[in-house]
Each structure stands twice: as structure tokens, then as C-alpha cells.
């Protein structure tokens, strides 16, 4: 038995943050019903990296495993009635509509909690449910730019650099996932459901608890160096350095020990807690010049022998083949009926007695409409009428 067995989640979200939060609940055993338009959720038609797949593109495939698809037109009265009936059996309702849309559709918290007072209603937005930015588009890169984090790294005078992940989407997804679990735990104690609100701006801001506290409490300005230092609030050395055949990372080394490995007496004259800040550019420059004389493997061997924090800079091909990744079983593989053998990142949380598992791949549009409606008590004639009228889509 998985840990959320018996919990039903209605996933009315699109794109990445909402579907990823719902997928994590599904990974832990929740019955996640993806309620999507009869034309299919937006992400089905937006292929990241041009990876279109056979019937399901890779973007959708990666964010919607362990779900069933109910394809229904919520703008049709019959479709909305089906959803409201389904809410009676749900534990979690998750949506990331723009503010105001849930009310217009009649699926807002006030409406649904009146039908099911035990419901956990997770509402996700870009900037908050109200306020001056409430209608601005909540997109990952836009929120990265607002977060302030881009100006914590890199060289002064150089353009800000975004993260190499869809970072804000991921952090928001995990905030919603965490909120849903906490609200379910509260319900176990009290029997009452509640509204859980998560927004991308707050998620990426509060992720920077340490950095922003240094600014607001410690009154330290966010100052980039002339060299490409990796974070303005961490002393040198801290960054990415070229070697003779690639790149490595180097973090907060003891300067005297670093000087021994680099065979440079300059570092023995420095103090980490003073010169590590005031001479960041000089330190960076000398390391940069020295590291180009040997390979990444040579330097990593030397630094690890000296207990200096250093590591490789991977591409995805390196990451997937890394021995620790393979040892951990970080990726999972399973067979999908239309996409064949699938290999994707697996489960970040491990449970000794209730392990997560892939029980089904991402669904086709409306693949489970008939089964979900039958579970709701509709007879065959009623289901057939809904499908033939176009209110519900059942994949052939």
C-alpha cells in the first residue's frame, strides 16, 4: 500500500507547477483524476525542446504520470454538474487558474467547500489572489527576473543569467505539494478542510531565506564582482572555472590549503573571512589562470585529496550516467502504451514501508472518462449520451 492510498485528488491545473504538485501526490498513491478540456490540457500542445512524442509530448508525459484523465467541458452545464458531483468524493482539489477564473467557472473554494466541507482546496497563482500584479502572467522566467536572484551571481556589468531549470515552477509545485500534505494532516486531526493558497512570487522569494535575510537584517548590499563569482553573499573562491578540457566548480576552500594544491604562495598570505570578501577578484583571477594547466579529472583528484570542495560541471548526458545517480535509482523506467519505454526522473522522497511507484503513465485525453463517470454512479446510457454530445471525451 502506498502512503496516500484512498486519497482522491482532482487536478484542474495546467503547464508545470500544478501538474507537478499533483503528480507528486499521485506518486505517493493518491488517485489523481486530471480534469482537462475535451481538447486536452494546454501542455499537451506545447512541446518543450520540440520533443513531440508519438501521442503524448514529453512535457506532458513527464508531469502527468500516475493520473487518470477525465476530459470534460466545464463551460457546459452538464460538464460543470459532473465536476461538482465528483467534488463530493474528492479530498484535494488543485487549480492554477488565473485569479477570478475559478469564480467565473463556479469552482471556487466557497462553492466547492459548501459541497464538501472536508475538501482541501489548493489554489496556485503567479503573484497572489489579489493585489496590483494579480492578473500579470505567472511564467517561470518572469518570476526569476523579479526574484532578485539573477543579480546574486555572475560578473558586474554582465547580463543577469537565469537558472538552468524551470526553478520557480518547481519551487511553487513543491510548496503546493507541501501545503496539500499539511492540510490533509490537519484534517486527520480535526475533520475540517481548508483553502491553501500558493503563489510563485512568494515561493521563490521565501526560498531565498538566507540571502534576503543577509540583505534585510545584515544590511549587506547585493554586490557582484568583476569576475564571475557564483554568489554575491559567499566569499571567494566560489564559482565555475575552466580547466584544460572542461569546467569544474570550486567552493569556499581554505585559502592556505588551496595555495598548496595550486603551488601558489599568494594564498598563504590571505585570511578567508576578510580577504575572501575584499579580494574576490584577485583570488578568482589567480585560480582561473592556474586551472587551465590541467584537466578537470586531474584537478578534482587533487582537490578531493586535500579535502577542498570541488566538483564536475555536468551536461545531462553526464548526469544520467553518473554512478551515484545509478546507485540511487534516481531515474525510473516503465513501458507506456503509446510512447514505448520511458525513462524519467523518479521519486525524491523515500518511504521504508510505503514506497512510491509508477502505476500508470501519463494518460491520453479522456482515457479514463468512462471509468471515472461509472465510479460516480452514472449508468451506461448516461455516459454514452455525455460522450456523444461532446460534453465528455472518451479516448477510443
TrEMBL record:
<protein>
    <submittedName>
        <fullName>Racemase</fullName>
    </submittedName>
</protein>
<dbReference type="InterPro" id="IPR050483">
    <property type="entry name" value="CoA-transferase_III_domain"/>
</dbReference>
<dbReference type="InterPro" id="IPR044855">
    <property type="entry name" value="CoA-Trfase_III_dom3_sf"/>
</dbReference>
<dbReference type="Pfam" id="PF02515">
    <property type="entry name" value="CoA_transf_3"/>
</dbReference>
<dbReference type="InterPro" id="IPR003673">
    <property type="entry name" value="CoA-Trfase_fam_III"/>
</dbReference>
<dbReference type="GO" id="GO:0008410">
    <property type="term" value="F:CoA-transferase activity"/>
</dbReference>
<keyword id="KW-0808">Transferase</keyword>
<dbReference type="InterPro" id="IPR023606">
    <property type="entry name" value="CoA-Trfase_III_dom_1_sf"/>
</dbReference>
Amino acid at each position: 500500500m502506498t502512503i496516500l492510498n484512498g486519497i482522491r485528488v482532482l487536478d484542474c491545473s495546467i503547464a508545470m507547477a500544478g501538474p507537478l504538485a499533483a503528480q507528486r501526490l499521485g506518486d505517493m498513491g493518491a488517485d489523481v483524476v486530471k480534469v482537462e478540456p475535451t481538447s486536452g490540457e494546454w501542455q499537451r500542445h506545447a512541446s518543450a525542446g520540440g520533443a513531440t512524442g508519438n501521442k503524448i509530448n514529453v512535457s506532458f508525459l513527464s508531469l502527468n504520470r500516475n493520473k487518470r484523465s477525465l476530459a470534460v467541458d466545464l463551460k457546459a452545464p452538464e460538464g460543470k454538474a459532473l465536476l461538482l458531483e465528483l467534488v463530493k468524493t474528492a479530498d484535494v482539489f488543485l487549480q492554477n487558474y488565473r485569479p477570478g477564473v475559478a469564480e467565473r467557472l463556479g469552482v471556487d473554494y466557497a462553492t466547492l467547500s459548501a459541497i464538501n466541507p472536508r475538501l482541501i482546496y489548493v489554489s496556485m497563482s503567479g503573484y497572489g489572489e489579489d493585489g496590483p500584479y494579480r492578473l500579470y502572467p505567472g511564467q517561470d522566467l518572469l518570476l526569476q527576473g523579479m526574484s532578485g536572484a539573477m543579480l546574486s551571481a555572475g560578473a558586474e556589468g554582465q547580463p543577469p543569467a537565469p537558472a538552468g531549470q524551470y526553478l520557480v515552477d518547481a519551487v511553487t509545485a513543491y510548496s503546493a505539494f507541501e501545503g496539500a500534505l499539511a492540510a490533509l494532516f490537519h484534517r486527520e486531526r480535526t475533520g475540517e478542510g481548508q483553502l491553501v493558497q500558493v503563489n510563485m512570487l512568494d515561493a521563490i522569494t521565501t526560498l531565498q531565506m538566507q540571502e534576503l535575510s543577509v540583505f534585510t537584517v545584515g544590511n549587506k548590499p547585493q554586490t557582484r564582482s568583476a569576475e564571475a563569482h557564483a554568489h554575491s553573499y559567499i566569499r571567494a573562491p566560489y564559482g565555475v572555472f575552466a580547466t584544460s578540457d572542461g569546467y569544474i566548480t570550486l567552493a569556499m576552500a581554505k585559502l592556505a590549503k588551496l595555495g598548496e594544491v595550486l603551488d601558489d604562495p599568494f594564498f598563504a598570505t590571505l585570511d578567508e573571512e576578510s580577504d575572501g570578501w575584499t579580494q574576490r577578484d584577485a583570488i578568482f583571477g589567480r585560480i582561473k589562470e592556474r586551472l587551465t594547466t590541467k584537466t578537470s579529472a586531474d584537478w578534482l583528484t587533487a582537490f578531493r585529496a586535500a579535502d577542498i570542495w570541488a566538483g564536475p560541471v555536468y551536461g545531462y548526458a553526464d548526469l544520467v550516467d553518473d554512478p551515484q545517480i545509478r546507485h540511487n535509482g534516481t531515474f525510473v523506467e516503465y513501458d507506456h502504451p503509446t510512447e514505448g519505454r520511458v525513462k524519467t526522473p523518479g521519486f525524491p522522497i523515500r518511504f521504508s514501508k510505503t514506497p512510491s511507484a509508477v502505476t500508470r503513465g501519463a494518460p491520453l485525453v479522456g482515457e479514463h472518462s468512462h471509468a471515472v463517470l461509472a465510479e460516480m454512479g452514472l449508468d451506461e446510457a448516461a455516459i454514452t449520451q455525455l460522450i456523444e454530445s461532446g460534453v465528455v471525451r472518451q479516448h477510443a
